Structure formats: C-alpha cells, structure tokens
C-alpha cells in the first residue's frame, strides 16, 4: 500500500513536468499533501493511538489547507498570470525528468542491496527532490520556485518515511513549522518585489546592483 | 471455437452502440437531449444504401483500402478477449500481432488519404503518421509490463493468469488504465487530441482523411472506427477481469459496468476538455509514455 501512494506521488511529478498553469501546481501540492498524510496514517490503521493522529492532522492542516490557500492568495493579490514561463521547452523538460527518474530508480536498487529500505517510496521521494530542483532552475516565475521548494520538501518527507517508519514526532513537527515559515517569508518577499518591480520573474532580479 | 465466434459477434454488434452511448452522455452533460443511442446504426444503414463515388484522380489503393482496414479491424477484434470467452485467435505473442495489424490499418488509411490527391487529406495523413509514432511506445510499455507480470504473451492468457495476490497488480491497474486511456483517446481521435465533431479541415486529423469518401467506403471507414474504439475500451476493461475470476457472473457484471463507466468517463473528458494545440499533442503523448516507463520501473523493482 505504501508503494501505491508512492507511485501516485511519482505520477504527480510527471504531471508537474508538463502542465502549463500555475493553479495546477497548487493542486498538485494539495494532492501530495493528502498522499503524505495517508502514508503516515497507514501503519497505525489497526492500533489507534492519539499520538499517531497528531502528525497526519498537522500535515493536512499545513500542507493541504494553509500553504496552498496562502499561495492562491498571493496569486490573486499580486495578479500573477496563469501561464508559467519555462526557460526550456516543456517537451525537453519532460524528457529530462523521465531520464532522471530512470537513473534514480536504478541507483536506488543498487543502494538497496546493502541497506534495508523500501525501494519505491525512496525512489519517488528522491525523484521529487530532483524535480523540485529542476523546477527552481528551469522556471522564471518566482511563485513556481516556491512550489518547487515545497515539492522538494515533500520528497524529503517521503524519503524519511521510507528509511524509518517512525521518526521522532517533534522533529517532523519542527520541519513542518520551518516550511510554513519559509513559505510565509517568501510571500512577504514576493510582495516586496512586486512593489519595486513590474513582474515576478527571475530575469528582473538579474539586474539588481548595489 | 463457438466462444470465439460469440465474442466476435458481440464486439462487432456492440461497437456502434458504444459510440452512440458516448454521444448521448455528451449531449446530456452539455444540457441537450441528444440523438438516440442507436443513431450510429441508422447512419451506417443510411450509408450502406448510398452509391460509392471515387475521386477521378484516385487509383486502386482507394478501392481496396477500406475493405482491408475493415477486415483488419475484424481480425484484431477476434484477438481481444470478451469476458472469459476464449477468443478466436489466441497464441503466444499475439500482442505484437495485435499492434501491427492496427499499424497495417493505419498505414493503408494514410496511403488512401494521400492517394486522392487533396492537399487537406495529405495534411491529415501527415498528422496521423506523426501522432501514431508517439502513440506506439505507449502500447508496448503498458501492455508489455502487464505481460511481464503474468509471464504470458497472449492477450487471453495474460488476463486469465494474473493472480490477485500479486502485490503490485492494483498499482498496475491504475497506472496502466491511465496510459491506455490516453492511448485510446489518441488512436480513436477523441477530444483532447482531435475533435470528432468539428468540420473545419485545418483542425481535423482522422475526419479529414475520409473527407472524400462516400457510400459503402464511408460505411466501412465509419464502422472500423467504431470497432477500433470498442477494442480499446475492451483492453481497458480487461484490466479488471482478474477480480471476477472465481465467478463468471461477476465477469459479465464487470464487463457491463466497465462499459458504462468507460462511456461516461469518455463523455466527461470530452465535455470538460478542449482540443489541444497541435504542437502540444506530442507532449501529451510523451506524458503517457513516461507513465508506461514508470510501469516498467515498478515491475523491475517490486520484488
């Protein structure tokens, strides 16, 4: 069942690689949040405890409700256009993503010879990290950079569940809080940038000087 | 033998009904009453009564192409399993035959479109060839990985030998049905790739290739496109057969429910999406291919 959710997670990465709309990124973030929460609930489905339910609930609150709504609010407030601006063709980007996913799966299977881990959740998380980095490299819009960072974060989360099924809860909660604060700060920074410049693209920032 | 003939007859006679159901649901979703479900049958009967007129510039290719296309569709539909009936033709490796008979039909379709000499049809033929190129890997990746799971290479054996305790099979159903659905949309020229109802030559793919045909030839072309749609629908439904293996009644139920669900899904997709730009279609197909590759990766590492 873990494999099932991880595969859906990888499918969402492929979707991210070809979609043209900013809104689609936000819905992918929501979808991934739901998947992560389900993944965390799964081991505790027959032995219910109050501690098991805290972390999934927090994920649903932060990753499914708060952050996507906040990004949507930024999009509405700053009147960001709905099409993303890729720096390379979408087709090339998709091919790069496919190649990386294949390499990552191969690498993971080599790693799993020596270390005990779940191959498919680990590889999906690893691919999410790489795709997040690619999104930050190959997109012009700053709001997409935020989404790429969040996808990367989701990937790290998935990897942590693949290696150890129960991380200490306080650490996970601390990471979630960090992510939320970072997104919040990025929103404020975007607002500031929009006051100074016309658009929200990286190309404007290139001209900054002392 | 008898089972095979029965399943062949089912496929041939149910295929216009499937197209009619999609059109009916599409009309309902957009708030119209729509043509009756049996409208495709009436249109086929109307076409068969009419006289065939070929373009004066066309050669013998236009005469033989419709018949060969129709016969190859019948041949392909005798490979596909309907429920648990053993199909007429079934041997090891028939999935490859399946793909290439469809390829033969497509080749003749392109050739006959070029044969007439109209520039519009040449354009449609070029598009069909390009998109078929991107659509071929989807089939081999998704059906190929299913074949790997089951360890058989015959369409009937594949879906009859998969055990449900095979841990990865539920994942494969989801992943494969997405990619086969996209494949069906492309091959049958449905909405996000091609609009079957438009009549503007510049935007058509499949319809533009049969623009100059009439009468009996057009009947054969229409009928084979209905059969093709049904064949892909049957592949999609076949993924769910292993759930009803204990009980043949359940198998029939899966067939009927799958048929209804698939027609509603196709109608829904056609209602909520608009046709993509031509340059975006390779991207859409590559997406499906990447799902197929993911499929193969899962198979390789799920041990």
UniProtKB/TrEMBL annotation, chain A:
It is found in: Cell membrane. GO terms for cellular component: plasma membrane. InterPro entries: HyfE-like (IPR038730). It is a multi-pass membrane protein. The chain crosses the membrane at residues 6-22, 29-46, 52-71, 91-111, 117-137, 142-163, 169-190. Keywords: Cell membrane, Membrane, Transmembrane, Transmembrane helix. Its main location: membrane. PANTHER family: HYDROGENASE-4 COMPONENT E (PTHR38601:SF1). This is Hydrogenase.
From TrEMBL, chain B:
Keywords: Membrane, Oxidoreductase, Transmembrane, Transmembrane helix. The chain crosses the membrane at residues 6-23, 67-89, 95-117, 129-150, 162-185, 226-243, 249-269, 281-302. One of its GO terms (molecular function) is NADH dehydrogenase (quinone) (non-electrogenic) activity. Its EC number is 1.6.5.9. GO terms for cellular component: plasma membrane. It is found in: Membrane. It is a multi-pass membrane protein. InterPro entries: ComplexI_Subunit1 (IPR052561), NADH_UbQ_OxRdtase_su1/FPO (IPR001694). Its main location: membrane. PANTHER family: FORMATE HYDROGENLYASE SUBUNIT 4 (PTHR43359), FORMATE HYDROGENLYASE SUBUNIT 4-RELATED (PTHR43359:SF1). This is NADH-quinone oxidoreductase subunit H.
């Amino acid at each position: 069942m873990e494999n099932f959710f991880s595969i859906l997670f990888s499918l969402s990465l492929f979707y991210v690689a070809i979609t043209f709309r900013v809104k689609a990124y936000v819905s992918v973030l929501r979808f991934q949040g739901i998947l992560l929460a389900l993944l965390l609930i799964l081991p505790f489905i027959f032995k219910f405890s109050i501690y098991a339910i805290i972390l999934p609930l927090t994920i649903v609150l932060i990753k499914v409700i708060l952050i996507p709504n906040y990004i949507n609010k930024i999009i509405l407030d700053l009147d960001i256009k709905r099409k993303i601006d890729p720096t390379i063709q979408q087709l090339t980007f998709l091919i790069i993503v496919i190649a990386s996913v294949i390499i990552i799966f191969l690498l993971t299977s080599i790693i799993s010879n020596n270390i005990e881990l779940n191959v498919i959740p680990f590889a999906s998380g690893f691919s999410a990290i790489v795709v997040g980095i690619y999104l930050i490299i190959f997109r012009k819009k700053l709001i997409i950079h935020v989404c790429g960072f969040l996808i990367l974060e989701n990937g790290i989360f998935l990897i942590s569940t693949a290696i150890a099924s129960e991380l200490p809860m306080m650490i996970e909660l601390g990471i979630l809080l960090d992510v939320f604060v970072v997104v919040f700060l990025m929103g404020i920074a975007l607002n500031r940038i929009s006051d100074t410049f016309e658009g929200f693209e990286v190309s404007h920032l290139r001209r900054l000087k002392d | 033998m008898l089972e095979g003939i029965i399943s062949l007859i089912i496929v041939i006679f149910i295929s216009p009904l499937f197209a009619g159901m999609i059109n009916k649901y599409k009309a309902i979703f957009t708030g119209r009453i729509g043509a009756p479900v049996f409208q495709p049958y009436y249109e086929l009967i109307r076409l068969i009564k009419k006289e065939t007129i070929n373009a004066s510039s066309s050669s013998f290719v236009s005469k033989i192409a419709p018949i060969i296309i129709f016969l190859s569709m019948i041949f392909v539909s005798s490979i596909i399993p309907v429920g648990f009936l053993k199909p007429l033709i079934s041997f090891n490796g028939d999935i490859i035959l399946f793909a290439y008979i469809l390829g033969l039909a497509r080749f003749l379709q392109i050739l006959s479109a070029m044969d007439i000499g109209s520039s519009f049809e040449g354009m449609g033929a070029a598009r069909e060839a390009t998109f078929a190129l991107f659509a071929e890997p989807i089939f081999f990746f998704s059906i190929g990985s299913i074949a790997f799971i089951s360890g058989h290479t015959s369409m009937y054996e594949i879906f009859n030998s998969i055990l449900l305790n095979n841990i990865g099979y539920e994942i494969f159903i989801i992943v494969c049905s997405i990619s086969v659905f996209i494949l069906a949309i492309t091959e049958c020229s449905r909405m996000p790739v091609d609009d079957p109802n438009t009549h503007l030559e510049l935007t058509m793919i499949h319809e533009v290739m049969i623009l100059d045909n009439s009468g009996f030839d057009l009947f054969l072309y229409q009928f084979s496109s209905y059969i093709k749609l049904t064949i892909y629908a049957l592949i999609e439904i076949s993924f769910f057969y292993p759930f009803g293996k204990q009980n043949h009644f359940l198998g029939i139920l899966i067939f009927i429910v799958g048929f209804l669900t698939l027609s509603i899904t196709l109608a829904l997709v056609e209602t909520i999406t608009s046709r993509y730009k031509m340059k975006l279609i390779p991207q859409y197909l590559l997406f499906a291919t990447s799902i197929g590759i993911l499929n193969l990766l899962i198979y390789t590492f799920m041990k």
